[in-house]
């Protein structure tokens, strides 16, 4: 453990601000705040809030964070790497692939594949989720960005929190829409009875989804959806909430699903500011073949 005695010019300032300016120069504010919340940093021997105001005589204690070794074996999954440089990579994830390991599954995940195809991944999210900045559901296909170092991970995470990363999805949903576009603002939390599901609950976290009709069919509608927030299962929950569940989703839609490759939900576009290059990067992934084929069939049936 190392200590820092609060200086005269620190008095009246926030704990996280002083740590960021005096000690953790090369880290982000969110990283420092996580250290405080996790108890790695204390004030006068006590766990305090990140915004604790410092006073004369205060002593900041900093515990060394233990670095755990990774115990996940690399697996060759032949991942579709859309873009890669020294700091990050953009992956086009297939439907059916889980993003990271969990206690409830033993199958190979995106992380297993990343370890096979990349030499370095960020460590912020722990040994089970190296490089994982954000997730998409197992049965959702499409783009996600992974970080190769902690600086990049922190920067991308902060951009996600302030909604500076654009994520555009395409979904086929049940039913017809009168409007051409709309906006869903409905908070989401864990389902009260089924802990594997999420639900719209007034006490939940804010969740906002924008949608636009791309194409109409007899019984279905093709939508473009933009996430303003990133709650678990957000699009699937919001679509079911307004009476238009995603086709192929047995959790939030009809149990008799259409197709056999998961829900027809695809993360098509991903756009973000590169943390080191300071360039806006935009990537697009075409719909999976089965998704494209279903759209063709629906167009043909609509004409008949």
Molecular structure report:
It is a single chain. The chain has 304 residues and is of the alpha+beta class. It folds into three domains: 2-62, RNA-binding S4 domain (Structural Genomics Hypothetical 15.5 Kd Protein In mrcA-pckA Intergenic Region, Chain A), CATH 3.10.290.10; 67-162, Pseudouridine synthase; 163-304, Pseudouridine synthase. Helices cover 20% and strands 26% of the residues. It has six helices and 14 strands. Strands 4, 5, 6, 7, 8, 11, 12, 13 and 14 form a nine-stranded mixed beta sheet that branches. A three-stranded antiparallel beta sheet has the order 1-3-2. Strands 9-10 form a two-stranded antiparallel ribbon. The chain starts with a strand and ends with a helix. The mean pLDDT is 89.
**In percent terms, what proportion of residues is strand?**
25-35%
Q: How helix-rich are the residues, as a percent range? A: 10-25%
Q: Mean of residue pLDDT?
A: 89
State the major sheet. Answer: 9 strands, mixed
Write the CATH fold name of the largest domain. Answer: Pseudouridine synthase
Element-level helix/strand string: EHHEEEEHEHEEEEEEHEEH
- What's the CATH H-level homologous superfamily of the largest domain? Pseudouridine synthase
Number of helices: 6
CATH architecture classification of the largest domain: 2-Layer Sandwich
Structural class: alpha+beta
Number of domain modules: 3
Write down the CATH class of the largest domain.
Alpha Beta
Radius of gyration: 22 Å
Overall 3D shape: elongated
Short description:
This protein is of the alpha+beta class and 304 residues long.
């Amino acid at each position: 453990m190392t200590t820092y005695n609060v200086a005269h010019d620190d008095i009246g300032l926030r704990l996280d601000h002083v740590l960021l300016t005096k000690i953790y120069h090369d880290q982000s504010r969110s990283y420092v705040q996580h250290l405080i919340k996790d108890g790695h940093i204390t004030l006068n021997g006590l766990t305090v809030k990140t915004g604790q105001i410092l006073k004369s005589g205060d002593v900041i204690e900093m515990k060394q964070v233990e670095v755990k070794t990774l115990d996940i074996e690399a697996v060759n999954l032949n991942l579709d790497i859309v873009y890669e440089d020294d700091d990050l990579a953009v992956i086009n994830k297939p439907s059916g692939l889980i993003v990271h390991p969990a206690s409830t599954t033993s199958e190979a995940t995106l992380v297993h594949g990343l370890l096979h195809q990349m030499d370095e991944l960020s460590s912020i999210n722990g040994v089970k989720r190296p490089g994982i900045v954000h997730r998409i559901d197992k049965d959702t296909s499409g783009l996600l960005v992974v970080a190769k170092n902690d600086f990049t991970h922190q920067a991308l995470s902060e951009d996600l929190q302030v909604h500076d990363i654009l994520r555009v999805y395409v979904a086929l949903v049940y039913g017809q829409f009168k409007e051409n576009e709309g906006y869903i603002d409905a908070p989401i939390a864990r389902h009260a009875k089924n802990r594997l599901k999420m639900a719209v609950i007034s006490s939940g976290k804010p969740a906002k989804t924008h949608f636009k009709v791309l194409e109409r069919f007899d019984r279905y509608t093709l939508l473009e959806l933009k996430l303003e927030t990133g709650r678990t299962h957000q699009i699937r929950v919001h679509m079911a909430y307004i009476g238009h569940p995603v086709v192929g989703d047995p959790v939030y839609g009809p149990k008799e699903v259409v197709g056999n490759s998961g829900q027809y939900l695809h993360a098509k576009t991903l756009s973000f500011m590169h943390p080191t290059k300071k360039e806006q990067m935009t990537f697009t992934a075409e719909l999976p073949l089965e998704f494209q084929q279903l759209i063709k069939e629906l167009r043909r049936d609509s004409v008949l």
